[in-house]
Amino acid sequence: PPNNTPLIDEISSKVQDLVEKINNSRASDQRVMDSFQEELMTKVTEVCQEMKESMYTVYEDNSNEMHVKLKELSRVLESCTRLHQELMEATQALTGLRVSIGVKKQDC
Hints:
Organism: Tetraodon nigroviridis
Distance between the termini: 137 Å
Protein name: Synaptonemal complex central element protein 2
Radius of gyration: 45 Å
Oligomer: single chain
Helix content: over 70%
Shape: rod-shaped
């Protein structure tokens, strides 16, 4: 029937408009999500960089503390070596003295 054709054309046009609006809305949603993703990645990168900088600061502080402690350990070990050497020299001197005065080891 010819009188239904304008109605069908109108419905078809409205459906096309709705589909176009839906597609435009989807495209807009995609742009919003892309923008959000980009902003999120930027923020995550910034936060990661801040965390790295904090880690490096902690590493540097720890390294400085370890350096101080290693220097102290080195001084203590040098002192132990010197004291050990002095003790060995004293032992040799006492051994020499004991031998020179004729004291046997069992007599001590």
